[in-house]
Amino acid sequence: MGFAQNEPLILQSHLEGGKILLMPQNKVKIIVNPNADLGRAWRTASDLRAVVDELGGADWAGSVYPRHATELARQAGEEGYRLVIAAGGDGTVHEVMNGLMQFPAERRPQMGVVPIGTGNDFAFAVGMNKEPALAIRQVLQGTPRAVDIGLMHDQLGRTIYWDNTIGIGFDATVTIRSRKISFLRGFPLYLAAVLQTIALNHTAPRMEVKTDRESWTEETLLLAVCNSGREGGGFMLAPGAKNNDGVLNYTRIRNVSRPTMLRILPEVLKGTHAHFSSISMGELTRMELKSNAPLLIHADGEIYAGFGSNIRSLQIEMLPGALQVVA
C-alpha cells in the first residue's frame, strides 16, 4: 500500500541508552541538496512546500558538504522516519541511499526521489515524472517496490553501495570532466564532457575480469556495470538493464580509435550499439576486477577514484531487492 500521510500516527517503541523512545512510524524526511542543478535546487525545493503541506507535510533538511546527505539519511532512520526523500540529482540519491543501507532490512526506511539534479538517471529508472511538483506527488501518494542495489569493495578496504551505474575508465573520465563545465546543464553537459574525453583522455588499461558467468583479459577503454539502462542524462549504455530483475548488466568497449568512438557515440544515445564488434555486453551478479594501471571510477555519477588515485582492484556484487523505493 502507499504511504498515507493523513493516517493517525502509530508510535513504535525503541530502547536506546536505557530510555524508551516513542517515534511515529509514518513521518517523512525530505533531504535537499541545494547545490544540485547548478545551485537551482533550493529554489525548486522551496516551490514544493505547498504541495508537501497539502499532502500531509514533511520535515526538511539540507545537505551542506560532501556525504552530508548520507549522515542526514542515517539520522532520519535512527529517528524513526519511515520515508526519506532525496531531492536532488543522482549524487543526492546515491548519498541518501548509502545512509539508508546502513540499516538492517527490517528497519530500513523507504526511499523516494524528486529529480532536481543534472542527470536524474535513477529517477528516470524508477519512473519519476520530470516535473518536481508531480514527482513529489508520486512519492507521497505512491506505492513502494523493491529495487536492487549494488555493493562495491576496493583493495584499500573502502565499501560503498550504488544504485544505478559503476563506470570504469572512459565514462568515469567524462564524469570528472563534467564537473569542470559550468555553463551547461543536463545532457548537453555530459555530451561536451564526452567529446573532451575522446580528444584528451583516450586510455585503455589492461583489465582482468572474472564474473560468476565468464571471464576475460583485455585492454579496455570503458567498462560500465549497470543496474539500469541509462547514465549521463541520456546515454543508454545497457538498454536491457532493469533495477528489479536480480542481475547486473555490463557494457565494455575494447581499445578502439578515436574515430571509432565518435561512430559509437550516436548509437549509445539510442541504445543500438551492441552490433559493434568492439563492444561486449552481458549479465552478472558478482565481478572481480584487476588492472595493470590505476582506475578512474564513478559510482552513480559521483567520483569514486579520480586522477591521482591508485585503485587497481575491485569487487562488485548485487543485493537483490535490498531497498524499497516509492514511485
Helical content class: 25-40%
Order of helices and strands: EEEHHHEHEHEHHEEEHHEEEHEEEEE
* Domains, number: 2
Q: Residue ranges: pLDDT <50 for 5 or more in a row?
A: 1-24
Envelope shape: globular
Could you name the CATH topology of the largest domain?
Answer: Tumour Suppressor Smad4
What would a concise description of this structure say?
With 327 residues, the protein is α+β, with helices and mostly antiparallel strands. It has helices at 36-39, 41-47, 49-54, 68-78, 90-100, 121-125, 132-141, 170-178, 186-200, 258-270; strands at residues 11-16, 19-24, 28-32, 59-62, 83-88, 110-115, 144-154, 159-162, 165-169, 206-211, 215-226, 248-254, 279-284, 286-291, 297-299, 302-305, 313-326. The strands form 3 sheets. Strands 7, 8, 9, 10, 11, 12, 13, 14, 15, 16 and 17 form an 11-stranded antiparallel β-sheet that branches.
Sequence-ordered SSE layout with sheet pairings:
Layout: E1 11-16, E2 19-24, E3 28-32, H1 36-39, H2 41-47, H3 49-54, E4 59-62, H4 68-78, E5 83-88, H5 90-100, E6 110-115, H6 121-125, H7 132-141, E7 144-154, E8 159-162, E9 165-169, H8 170-178, H9 186-200, E10 206-211, E11 215-226, E12 248-254, H10 258-270, E13 279-284, E14 286-291, E15 297-299, E16 302-305, E17 313-326
Helix pairs in contact: 4-5, 8-9
